[in-house]
Design goal:
Blueprint (H helix, E strand, L loop, with lengths): L5 E4 L2 E4 L1 E4 L4 H13 L3 E5 L5 H12 L3 E5 L2 E5 L10 E5 L4 H14 L2 E5 L10 H9 L4 E3 L8 E3 L10 E4 L4 H10 L9 E6 L5 H13 L4 E4 L3 E4 L10 E3 L4 H12 L10 E4 L12 H7 L3 E5 L2 E5 L9 E3 L7 H7 L7 E4 L11 H11 L3 E4 L3 E5 L11 E2 L5 H7 L11 E4 L11 H8 E3 L5 E5 L6 H12 L2 E4 H14 L9 H9 L3 E3 L5 E3 L2 E2 L7 H10 L3 H6 L1 H6 L6 E5 L2 H5 L5 E6 L2 H14 L6 H17 L12 E4 L5 H14 L4
Parallel strand pairs: 3-16, 4-15, 7-8, 11-12, 19-20, 23-24, 26-31, 26-32, 27-31, 32-33
Antiparallel strand pairs: 1-24, 2-25, 4-6, 5-6, 8-10, 9-10, 12-14, 13-14, 16-18, 17-18, 20-22, 21-22, 28-29, 29-30
Helix pairs in contact: 1-2, 1-3, 1-6, 3-5, 4-5, 5-6, 13-22, 14-16, 16-21, 20-21
The protein binds 2'-deoxycytidine-5'-monophosphate.
Length: 667
């Protein structure tokens, strides 16, 4: 997941290959609650691992439910049959509506002394209609903050179930879902009837609720979308095993990306695994809407396949009530349409993670679109031509869908990058969204690279790694490749000199190395993370790096490191030879005394002994060799910016490089 303050998505040309999507948030949280409320053990497969499922899991654990997680599999022991459950708890539910509403209803029916709260935005999301319904059936639910909104205090119920319970259906279908899931807990001696007032929105989500309840052995009688009856004696029973479908709304971004992809003939399009057109999720009907706009989509059991069809896309005028979440993706696809598109009947967008109508209108305008918004509609007129597109910094309002849709602007014909602010908000439903996108996407232009070259112990590595972290870019420590080659040579009793040039080059070409998390490196299956950092390894690297065949052999490996969304590379010839077209090149120096001191501290901290004077002599000798060799000598590229960090802190140098980088961005 990208934890950076922003993520710059370079212009994209196409997506292709295969993506496997994470489990649906709506299904995951419903299944977890049902598994917790039932008797017996349930094994849940393909569970989503995200912010919203995490808060649900934490809450269920606090309520005495045993849950063990292994990867995407959860084993839940329900509290249904158990008399003893903690009667008191304070539950923090983040910004997860799919946890707040159903838990509020379930706990109000079970009774106890509970407080339910969330992030500030959660305390702005209405819950009054659900609380009214809970009051009417005799539950004790009080507002601990503003009337009509969480946080809530829950006490013991005094049931009045003789008359139908009325609940509004026109603000959020989650209120009805919450009641439906909770009421079997109260339907001991009599039928319980729920009447929906107002036009029920997001009916497909109610369908998911009913289907999942049926899997747990409670069948609700439905009369149209107005009346729901839970038969007396209904009890949740575990289905033993249950699979969570991939999230159909998450699929929408990849369907859209495929529909926006150039090279339709040359590419095989994108296969999306985990969800098919026969999904129980209403948002899968996004497929129909995307087809209306021109996307080409095939489907089979648990898979979809998408590619570009009509181009430009066709403008639409559509009632989107049945696909509230996925329709946001249509709003971004509308940027690529042949005229203005109107999305109607979307008033519920205003009470989601953010006011999504205003948020999208504001952000799409930044991209060059003309956008009109009304109480319950959005009209998007695309930029008139490629020149009318703007490079925008998209605000995401702590709304995962704003971030995921926003990235689709990267397919713009002007080949402009798009900045996504606070990209970690995708953690709500799809923590690896950007990684998944980058793994299937092809850039529209060369991937941005920042080169940081300089002599030994100038602090390049620390600086480059820090800059990479701040931008969410990959990091290439090119010196490590030479060091690894040297180490591999020593292991094979090869002297790193010109007499063995061909053998050394062959070794470099097939470097038996593996790179892991946090800079870990293995060579021939051994952990050499520390071994490559010794002075001896550095000297061997310096010697063999003077051999042209060795340098040539390491070219591909280095070029391949330039992957989406970008790269920070450090070494001696990053700016001069490996990435000569890089948009930012830094030549980092520090005086020799300072560098010797730094190298000394570095080695000592790793428990390697050394003396400052011999280190200084060594590094001066190494610099001389690196500078004077015939191929790719250490020197600043003509267009490099010089940065002497002898008297500057690391933070200071990092800020300097980021400032230079920002000055080159169009945002
Ligand atoms: O950056 P470093 O100290 O890990 O590099 C070790 C040696 O590898 C260095 O003395 C010269 C060589 N090298 C190179 O020639 N070109 C690079 N891009 C990186 C390192």
């Amino acid at each position: 997941m990208f934890e950076t303050a922003f993520l710059d998505v370079p212009a994209l040309r196409a997506v292709q290959g295969v993506v496997r999507l994470p489990g649906s948030k709506s299904i995951s949280n419903r299944v977890l609650l049902l598994a917790a409320l039932c008797q017996g053990r349930t094994v849940v497969h393909d569970l989503l691992d995200s912010d919203d499922t995490l808060v649900m899991l934490q809450a269920l654990r606090q309520l005495g439910c045993d849950v063990t997680i292994e990867g995407t599999r959860a084993v839940v022991d329900g509290i249904g049959g158990r008399a003893s459950r903690p009667r008191q708890a304070e539950l923090f539910l983040g910004n997860a509506g799919t946890a707040m509403r159903p838990l509020a209803a379930a706990l109000a029916v079970l009774g106890g002394d509970y407080t339910l709260c969330g992030v500030p935005r959660m305390h702005e999301r209405p819950i009054g209609d659900l609380v009214d319904a809970l009051h009417s059936l005799g539950c004790d639910v009080r507002y601990a903050g503003n009337p009509g909104y969480p946080p809530l205090r829950i006490g013991e119920p005094q049931f009045r179930l003789e008359r139908p319970i009325a609940v509004r259906g026109d603000v959020s279908s989650q209120f009805l879902t919450a009641l439906l899931m909770a009421l079997p807990l109260a339907a001991g001696g009599q039928d319980v009837v729920i009447d929906v007032t107002g036009e029920l929105i997001s009916k497909p989500y109610i369908d998911i609720t009913l289907q999942l309840m049926a899997r747990f052995d409670v069948r609700v009688r439905r009369d149209g979308w107005r009346r729901f009856t839970i038969a007396r004696g209904s009890t949740y029973r575990s289905p033993s095993e249950i699979h969570v479908e991939a999230d159909a709304s998450s699929a929408s971004y990849f369907i859209a990306a495929a529909a926006l992809s150039a090279d339709a003939e040359g590419s095989n399009g994108l296969k999306i695994e985990g969800v098919g057109a026969d999904s129980i999720q209403g948002d899968v009907r996004f497929i129909e809407a995307a087809r209306l706009m021109g996307a080409h989509i095939d489907s089979g059991p648990n898979w979809l396949h998408a590619r570009r069809g009509a181009w430009p896309l066709k403008a639409i005028d559509l009632d989107c009530n049945h696909i509230p979440d996925a329709a946001m993706t249509l709003a971004v696809m509308a940027l690529y349409a042949d005229g203005p598109s109107t999305l109607r009947n979307i008033a519920s967008w205003r009470v989601k993670e953010t006011d999504r109508i205003t948020a999208l209108a504001t952000e799409l305008r930044k991209l060059g679109a003309q956008v009109d918004e009304g109480a319950d509609f959005l009209r998007v007129t695309p930029p008139a031509n490629a020149a009318a597109w703007r490079a925008a910094s998209i605000r995401t309002y702590d709304d995962h869908r704003m971030a995921m849709c926003g990235a689709l602007a990267a397919f713009n014909p002007a080949k402009l990058p798009v900045r996504i602010q606070e990209p970690r908000c995708v953690g709500k439903t799809f923590p690896d969204y950007f990684e998944t996108l980058f793994a299937t996407a092809m850039p529209a232009a060369v991937v941005p690279v920042i080169c940081i070259d300089g002599p030994t112990a100038s602090g390049k590595g620390t600086l480059a790694a820090a800059v990479a972290r701040r931008l969410g870019y990959h990091y290439l420590d090119s010196g490590a490749l030479y060091r690894l080659t040297g180490l591999a040579a020593r292991a094979r009793k090869l002297e790193p000199d010109a007499a063995h040039e061909e053998a050394l080059a062959e070794l470099a070409r097939r470097l038996p190395a593996r790179f892991g998390e946090q800079g870990k490196v293995w060579l021939d299956g051994h952990d050499v993370t520390t071994a490559i950092r010794t002075e001896a390894a550095g000297n061997d690297a310096s010697r063999l790096s003077a051999l042209p065949a060795v340098r040539q052999a390491l070219l591909d490996l280095q070029h391949h490191a330039a992957r989406l969304p970008g790269l920070v590379a450090d070494g001696r010839d990053m700016g001069t030879v490996i990435f000569p077209a890089a948009p930012l090149k830094i030549y980092l120096t520090a005086d020799a005394a300072e560098r010797a001191q730094r190298r000394y501290s570095q080695l000592v901290s790793k428990g390697i002994s050394a003396t400052i004077s011999s280190l200084r002599a060594d590094l001066e000798k190494r610099d001389a060799r690196d500078r004077n060799r015939a191929v790719a000598p250490l020197e600043a590229a003509p267009d490099a910016l010089l940065l002497d960090n002898s008297a500057r802190s690391i933070d200071d140098t990092v800020e300097q490089v980021l400032t230079w980088w920002q000055a080159r961005q169009p945002f």
